Amino acid sequence: MKRILLIHTGGTFGMALKDGTLAPSSFIQRIIEFVPEVKQIAEIESHIVANIDSSNIGIEHWLKIADVIVQNYDDFDGFVITHGTDTMTYTASALSFILDGLSKPVILTGSQRPLSEIRTDARNNLINSVELATYPIPEVCIFFNNKLFRGNRTKKIDIWGFDAFDSPNYPPLAEVGVEVKVYEKNFLKRKNFKLNVSKNFSNEVFCVKIFPSVKVDFLMSLLELDIKGFVIEAFGSGNLPNIEERSLIPFVQKASEMGKIVAISTQAVYGKVDLTLYQCGKDALDAGALSCKDMTTETAIVKLMFLLAKYGDNVALIREEFYKPIAGEISED
């Protein structure tokens, strides 16, 4: 029987557990109590990293999760991480960059209603995540409502429905119905399956969402802060205001001249950024902006955090590496 390590971080899933504290033994006992089926799928052990609302997740938690996986890597066939939905995509992206050469499944899942509730999605998500973790899927994934997605391609799209996540620009890795359908053709094509761990992230990154009549002075004031990288959620295919007093192009140009990275993502869910499509985007490109292409904003933020920590002040190398896929988070041209 396969061995799966269940790593708990908190979130709605674990709200069945009272008093805000958890111990590994009591946690696994409660899981087995509510979902005895998992014992038929695999041998389960558990580890508690945290028991917090995922809004409070930070870099230190990404590193703790990674440490648990690395320390137990040879002893388990797969890993399932129960995690709050609000920041699950950020954690999945971070782990995909940390765990280079991953050859085993690391699956994040959670729920919209607690495991203790009668009408809950937690049971289905957990059972299927554990089963899929027994498959040879060499990726960091998110499983939710019968679909397994590449984690760094995933976006939370619903705070009410059970179908809370989608992968707008990349197809599922697996789907669960009467049968389990695994789409190996969509798996990450790794050149190396030897685990290589990189655990540094910079928090000197800031994300700005553009809206009509946004004040340029507000953005300019950000240049005085210790921010090394900006992700700007622009309109459409990556368009920024570019006329008269509304133009944000001077901000992009000034930031670039100061050695800061400016990456342009989109407020649209589907499609990709193309800074050559309209003059508004081309002006930003000419001023020094990078295109996030088909990366989600969440993944672009985490990738910039990762690259800034890895390459420091080597702006030219960061700009070059931003366009290269690390773990399938961006499509190659």
From TrEMBL:
Give the GO biological process terms: amino acid metabolic process
Q: Name the positions where substrate binds.
A: S54, T85, D86
> Could you name the domain of life of the organism this protein comes from?
Bacteria
Read off the PROSITE patterns from this record.
ASN_GLN_ASE_2, ASN_GLN_ASE_3
Q: Name one Pfam family in it.
A: Asparaginase_C
Checking InterPro entries in the record gives: AsnA_fam, Asp/glu_Ase-like_sf, Asparaginase/glutaminase-like, Asparaginase/glutaminase_AS2, Asparaginase_C, L-asparaginase_C, L-asparaginase_I, L-asparaginase_N
Sorted UniProt keywords: Hydrolase
The answer, when asked if Ribonucleoprotein is one of the entry's keywords, is no
Which molecular-function annotations from GO does this UniProt entry contain? asparaginase activity
Keyword Hydrolase tagged:
yes
> What residue stretches are annotated with the L-asparaginase N-terminal domain?
3-185
EC code: 3.5.1.1
Query: Which residues are annotated as active site?
Result: T12 (o-isoaspartyl threonine intermediate), T85
Q: Which residues form the Asparaginase/glutaminase C-terminal domain?
A: 205-320
Q: What class of enzyme is it?
A: hydrolase
| Similarity annotation | Belongs to the asparaginase 1 family.
Q: Which PANTHER family match?
A: 60 KDA LYSOPHOSPHOLIPASE, L-ASPARAGINASE
Q: What is this protein called?
A: asparaginase
Species this chain originates from: Candidatus Chryseopegocella kryptomonas
